[in-house]
Amino acid sequence: MTRLLREHPSIDVELDSDGELVAFRWNGRRERIEVCNRWRVEEGWWSQPIARDYFKVAGGSWLALLYLDRVDGTWHLERLYD
Amino acid sequence: MTTPPPNVESALATLRERWGGAAPRWGGEVVGALAVAPRRIPVLDPDDLPGVPGLPATPNDRAIPTGFRALDSILGLGGLPRAATTALHGDGTSGKTTLALQAAAQAQAAGGIVAYLDLARSLDPVEAVARGIQLDWLVVLTPGSLEQALAMAAMLLQDRTVDLLLLDLQSRPLDGSGVSAATLAERFGRLAALARRAGVQLLVLEPPNLPSALAGALTQVAALRLELSRRAWIRLGRDVVGQLTQVRVARDRFGPPGRAAQLRILYAEGGLRDGCLTRSELLRENGSEPMGRLGIVGGPGFARPTVVARPGEVALAGDGLRARVALAGDGSRARVALGGVAPPGGSRPSALPSTTRSSPPLHLTAISVPDHATPSSSLAPPSPPPGSGQSFRAIRGGADRSGRQALDGRPSAGREPPGARTRGPARDAARGGP
Amino acid sequence: MPLGAAHRLAPEALFLDPDPAADAAAMKAALDRLAGFSPGVVAEEDVARPGFGRVEVQLDGLERLWGPEPLMVSRIGEALAGILPGPPLAGIGGTRFAAAVASTRASPAGSGVGSGSASGSASGAVALQVVEPGADAAFLAPLPAALLSRDPEVRARLDRFGLRVIGQVAELPRSAVVARFGPEGERLHARARGEETDPFRPRRATERLVLALPIDPPVTDVEGLRFVLHRLAAAFGDQLEARGAATARARLTLELDRSFSAGDVPPSVVIDQPLPEPTSEGLAIERLLIARLEATPPRAPVARIELELRDVAPAAGTQLSLFTPQTGRTGRLGWQLARLGLRFGEDRVGWMELEDTEAALAEARWTWRRVPSLVDCAPDPGHAAASGAAHAPGRTLGPAHAPGPGRRAASTGPHGPGP
In 3D, which of C193, C86, B411 has the Cα closest to residue A24? Predict the structure, then answer.
């Protein structure tokens, strides 16, 4: 079961030298993660474009779904697997 | 390293021209993952499959089954007690939400109406339905604070219009409350007593680090307290598709405490993939083991054959590699075409690059795709994880209408310089929800 | 009878020229005044018809507002004083027929309260004959059988069969009466036995039921309003149940006492509240409106409260699904969720509904379904409140049924006799 965080809270991420996700920070906690799946979603290019790069990440405490909002460059947390 | 034959060289050149750095390379490097789906979906184990409430156990007058037979067998009443409070304690990935929703589905199947106090505003209805929840009989309340949640719950209990009340405490339950933890704890105690008198089942999702007053109140009123902890991930290839969770009975007013059971939870997405996950031979459990490498079925050096999907059902995904799987005559081998839609008759995969002999055993990732996959933007080669010399990229192909595409390996191509750094949020994005 | 004959009979009588227009106006005024006592009023308003002058008032549940029946009638009499040319004669019975007959038996000399007393005494300014509940048949038994019907042919036949009093008709088997009088015999027999034959259907607008009460001194807290609202809602509930009707909408108007209020307090507050489902339960209506008031209390003391029920229609039943055990509880759940929504905010209660489960974005895969009947309560300086949510057709529970036995009063004006 995943928790779908409806407000998609903003998060801080850490990228390595190759630009790959290695950690993210949320709710005052930092979690080192590995990416186990990723995909892109693009919609609404004709009106209100939505472009997100999704990353399913696994860490010691969390299995989460993050995304990079390619429109404004922000990172968000969408799901926690519980 | 051997030199590729001319026809392969030519094919690779074509792919490089089209896909750039994402094109497969010859010899010893990851060329992608083969997506397969089982030919037949076997009988589902209710303990594993999302969306199927536990079949063998049946509700009785005193308890509702959890949907996990292994867990029900160690509980004093054979399930979660009716007219009593149950606390599920565990951290963010312990599986307590899955367990709670599975139990709620059981309650509904027994004719009950469930109210979900979604303090964390995180209920996913798609997955709830995949777990067997009937949304028509799931009332969702989104209180602004724990104080408000308790008031709402009290009103529900007074009228006895629901049978199960799920209270999902967020990780910081005091946020937004105008009263002290002690007051909240006292109100919570009264709520539990009200539930008992009303004959309503109260199920509380207890996060770690609950304020001590609240935690104490919960400990006091809970007739059943289960502690959940994740033991291992369940992986399908590199992807994490489930987890093994240990449930320990910390307290059971109706039976002996201390017993434990292991639950095998597969995450539900409500789509075709849920059925694919039952292929146990494709799943493996691991804690923190390094990821294995991936190869293409049928290629030289590939360790074992694999049943493939029906034609057109599955798309390959890899580093710039897209193809359609064609069913081989004996069903034991995939014929793969490179770089696009499979030509009639397919082409033998003999030209595919292979992994080196010293590579570790290959693993497969199952990706279910309802529609044809279309080539999309180019992909950058993946970065190998430390130590393995290999890397992995799995792409979820999708129908055109969904807009999903293969992922550009660079998070924001051309916009961010490389190097480890911390990226902060540009702004909060409030999306979705009521 | 001709005027000359009347003169011979009563030489001392004063004979007035009829004034149909004045009579009709007086009747209308009387009915308007009576509407303030009961939402159920029936009268023949055509001066040319034989029944003109008889008014029937439904009293079910009104004792909570106006006191015991004799006191109610007394207050009605006071209200009608000056409108009607003379004191009315009133009868209270369990059926319309019994009440009408009782009213003809009331006499200014004294009141008759009992099963067979023909004496009457004034209750206030109104002569009143009360038939005890359940004693209608006993009251009617000794009375002439000719009262059972206006039809001269039926009266003649009753006489031919030797049926002189109503009790004799009541003692006969129903089949025997029907065999000799046809379908009319069924009505005769039922009337004689104290059974209702003509359901009470007020001729005045049935779409709206309105009751109002002044509050003196004005109340400032919701608890005080609850006390008054409870009486109004309960009275309505009895009325609706007696008629087999249900309402789908309630409108509460609070007139405010702004004498000591600062700021721009409106003169009244109007709450237009669709109900989760048509109902005749006064308590459910009350609780919902109180939840609304608790969410948005009035800003000044309330000096008058008016409760109006709209969209009143016969209650209907619904076939419940056999295989969905939760279905039978949706009505009650709907009410409770409406109260929760009113109390905590309508955006905090609802259901989730799946839309496009294949949508790429998670937020596009589902949507919220709000509780119907939750609208915003906005103080209205005028009379109309904004109604934000469309009223969803509710499901009704409970079988359709004919109006049950109730208590009614039939009062006659000075112009006409009873049935």
Answer: B411
- Tell whether the model's pLDDT for residue C309 goes beyond 70: yes
Residue type, B269: E
What ipTM, to 2 d.p.? 0.89
Going by the DSSP 8-state scheme, the letter that residue C383 receives in this structure is S
Q: What DSSP character marks residue C87? A: P
Among A2, A5, A7, A43, the residue to mutate for chain C (most C Cβ within 10 A): A43
Are B57 and B80 spatial neighbours (Cβ–Cβ below 8 Å)? no
Helix (H, G, I), strand (E, B) or coil at C76: helix
CA distance B208 to C381: 52
Question: Using CA atoms, how far apart are residues B155 and B115, in angstroms rounded to an integer?
Answer: 12
What integer best gives the mean pLDDT of chain C?
77
- Subunits that touch chain A (at least 3 Cβ pairs < 8 angstroms)? B, C
Task: Give B420→chain C minimum CA distance, Å.
Answer: 29
Closest CB to C354 among B135, B143, B398: B135
Token look-up 């009751």 returns C211
Of the candidates B282, B249, B243, B285, the one whose C-alpha atom is nearest the C-alpha of residue B263 is B243
Please judge whether B433 and A40 are an interchain contact, meaning their C-beta atoms are less than 8 angstroms apart: no
Task: Tell me whether residue C395 is in a domain.
Answer: no
Q: Determine contact, residues C102/C92, Cβ cutoff 8 Å.
A: yes
Measured distance CA(B311)–CA(B333) in Å, rounded: 12
Residue C417 vs residues C3, C23, C53, C115: alpha-carbon distances, Å: 19, 15, 8, 21
d(Cα C10, Cα C7) in Å, to the nearest integer? 5
Structural domain harbouring C347: 209-318+326-352+365-370
Number of domains in chain C: 2
Residue B101 has pLDDT above 90, yes or no: yes
pLDDT tens readout for residues B283-321: 777 654 444 333 333 333 333 333 333 333 333 333 323
In a domain, C312, yes or no: yes
Residues of B in contact with A34 (CB under 8 A): 291, 385
Residues C148, C194, single domain; the answer is yes
> Quick one: CA dihedral B257, B168, B95, A15, positive or negative?
negative
Q: One-letter amino acid identity for A6?
A: R
Point out which residues pair with B395 in neighbouring strands.
A38
